Structures are given as structure tokens and as C-alpha cells.
Amino acid sequence: MLKIYEEKRNNIKDEVLFMGNSVIEALEISLQTLKSDDISALKDIDLSVKKLSNKSNQIDNLIVTALALYSPEAKDLREMISYLKITNELIRAAANVKGFVKIFRKAFSEDLNTNTILEFTIPLHKSSLLALRTSMSMIEETNEKHTEEKYHRVIVEESKANDLYAIVEKNILKLISKNLELSKEYFDILSSLRRLERTADRASSIASLALFAQVGGDIIQS
Amino acid sequence: MVEGKIRMSKDNKVKVKVEKLNLWYGENHALHGISTDIYENKITALIGPSGCGKSTFLRCLNRMNDLISSVKIEGEIIIDRKNIYDKDVDEVSVRKRVGMVFQQPNPFPKSIYDNVAYAPIKHGIVSKGKECDELVETSLRKSGLWNEVKDKLNQPGTSLSGGQQQRLCIARTIAIKPEVILMDEPTSALDPISTEKIEALMLELKKDYTIIVVTHNMQQAARVADYTAFFHLGKLVEYDETETIFVNPSNKKTEDYITGRFG
Asked: Is B226 an 8 Å CB contact of chain A?
């Protein structure tokens, strides 16, 4: 492949990684905030879905141009198609993270049973973050075996996130049944955590796409 | 996009300005009022179906069509503010400024060294000896061939592979220090690896030269050209940045051609 294509390809990859890092960074800060029990600090998280959407459009147009001008084939083609879909997944992940931060911050208060909420929220958050971080690192991976290992790690984290959400849901429903006056706040907390769990789903989809790019096979997007 | 007109680029310097160029082969009107600017240090690809006039147009740019007695040309081709068809312009001096690489590699039946040195010595650009040796080395380096031939400069040019022969022809062209290089399907006789080497070379050469290439390979135009001109039935149908031509062409004929619906 021509050097000029390599440059464009690397540029596209860097832009996708930049998008991913923006979402990962927001998740890292929010996790830190939960761990330090300083929920009000969630307001400092600056994650603009609009800006990421603009970035996604910019990347998608770069990809269309690369496809039109350089007719990439095999792995190069798989990579381009994956990036095209990964940008979409990252927008959805960013919307979930932003939704989690916004709703959780508003709903969380000392009136709620914070210990019960945070007991499984923090592990759920960790799993979502780890899933996304690992899936994005697959984009830079050049070793097929490592790519597959990372893919399985993402699937495990996604599964953990699902299970942890189910536990949190069960616990919160119990709390609601005991204190119906706070049911709206508890449901909002659940809604925010659902978004966190969905972030892990998006990470799983990104991992599938990155696996397709590196190893091949059929394209799968969950 | 209006036929025969182009979108002007503010950022690029015009190297070749073509004004209302018409060409006839006897009674056959082969080029119809072509007006366009070709930009310095850019690669411009000419694409279109067989017989559309792209090679005819290319050959106008260094007065190669003067060699055909039935050809009649009207209009102007201005290179650096001088019409190359003015009566006081010598066609040999034009061909020195506007070099050409052909479809089939055509090295002289001489050594690799002499293939490169012959024209510069004839034109008085260098004299034999160290000066000439340096020019040969520089030209072969620029054409990406030096490392492959430096130990066999006295061997015949024809002993090289097809791809190497074509790069030798490019070295021969740049040895006379042209400003513009015309390439008429320079890779159509080459395998994919040699083609990629020539394309990479073109991208390097555009730093120093203005390159105009005729190609039937649309992917090649897409890969290497900064600007692409689509010809059809002797008319310049559309001329724009390559990205625009291949992603958002303005003219339906262009779109139909590049998507393989005709031609």
C-alpha cells in the first residue's frame, strides 16, 4: 500500500482512538468520584456528545474518501468498515456515560441507602470501564492472539456488568419496596446504572468489530 | 460543472494554462474547446474511455502532435506565460521543458548510464565526466533505481526488468531537468509491484515536477492524483480535485464512467 494511504489510515485510527479516549477519560473520572464518595464532582465531567458526533462525522467522511480513493482490500478494508461502525458505537457509549453521570448525580442523595447502591455500582462501573478500555486497546493491537485474548476479556467484563446490574436492580427494588416515597430517586438511580451497563454492551460491540478488523470472519455488531 | 470549464483553485499556482484548445485529425474534430489550468507540483490524472481525447490532449502539451501532418491545432497552451504554440517557440525546447514517459518502457539500446546521460550531453546540460556522473546518479536516485543499478551501470538498459526499465525512462526524462512530466499510461505494461513502485515514485517526484498522467486505471488516478480530469468525446466534462471526482462528482457522465456504467 502507498505511503499516502498509510498516512490516511493512521490518521483515521488516531482519530478513532481520540474519540474512545474521551469516553474512557469520562468514565475514569466518574469512577474516581464514586470511589471517593464525592458525587457532586460528577458535574465536572466534560463529555460533549455533540462534539464527539462532529468528530465521528469527520472520521466517517475520511473513511468514505479512503474507500473511494484507495480501494482498500482484505485487512485494510475490514479495518475501514470497522472504524466506520466503531465511531457509531462510541457515540452511543458517550451518550450512555453522559446519561449515567447526569442522572446519577441528580438522583443520588444521603436520603437513599447509599451503601447498598455503591456496593455493586462501583464494581459495575469498573467492569464497564475495563471493557471499554480493553476494547479500544484492541484497535492498536497487532498480534492476533493478543487480540483474541482481549476480546474474551471484554466479553467477560460485559457479562460481569450484566450480572452486577441484575444484582443492583434486585437490591434497589427491595429498597423501593421498603420506602416507596423515594421510589422515583431509586428508579432514576437504576436508570443511570442501566446506562452504565449498556456502556459495557457497546464495548463488547467494539471488541467484535476490532476482532473482525484484525482476524477476519463475519462482521458482527451487537 | 459546465463542460469545458473548471473550478479554479485559489491555493495552487498554475503551471500550464490551456485556452480554447481545439484539435483536428484531418476532418475529425478530436478536441473541442478545452480550457483548463494545471497546477504546479501536483499530479493531474486524465481519465476517460478509449478515444475520448485524453492522450491527444496530453501530446498537445509538449507538441508531440506536431509530428502528425494531418493535425491542425487552435487555441493556446501557456506555460509560464508563454504560448508554446507561438511561432517563435521551438518544439524541441518545449519537449525539453515538458518530458514524457510512454506506455511501454523504451530504453535506448545503450548502457544504463548512457540512457540517462545521452540527452543531457546532447542538450549541453552537462559535459562528460564528473558533472555527468553526478547527474546520472542524481537522476537514478530520484527515480528510485540507483540502489538496484549502481553496480551495473555499464550493462544494457534493456537487461533490466519492465518496472526497472520504466524507472530508467523516468530517470532519463528527469535528467534533462524538465518542469513538467507527461506520463501516458506509464504502468499499463507493468505488474502490480512495479506499478506500486512507479506510483510511489510519482508521489515523490511531484515535489519537484508537475505531473500529468493519462491512465485507464481509475484506482491509480484515485490513489495518486491531486486533480482528475474526465474526458468524453473530445470534451473536458469535469475537472476537479480527485477526492471530489471520486466521491461527489458533479456530472452524471463522470459518475457513470467512474462507477463502470459506461466506457
From this structure: no
